[in-house]
Amino acid sequence: QLQASGGGLVQVGGSLRLSCAASGRTFSGYAMGWFRQAPGKEREFVAGINRSGDRVYYAEPVKGRFTISRDNAKNTVYLQMKSLKPEDTAVYYCAAAPPWAAGNRGTSFYDSWGQGTQVTVSS
Length: 123
Prior knowledge:
Shape: globular
Strand content: over 45%
Structural class: mainly beta
């Protein structure tokens, strides 16, 4: 089970840190990813991280602004978001995937999803 939190309302240029806590599974055995879905749009890949946390992957629109990390001792994956833009407004989801799928951008590779947390960036 994955539980995402940390969303909210922020002004353009602001920052937020999302967290996703895992329970009921061996967290360190899974690759993790963050996705987002804006109204009327498909769910899209934002960032991914491998089991150990030493390999990370980003979608082009967030490179240089977002940072994914994980703490396997706390069973938690994070998404630090900076320099937020209105186009970052979406529901953000965390997801778990088999280790061989680390960084994969397709939603079908992820077999467990959190409930989503809303991020709204106001201009």
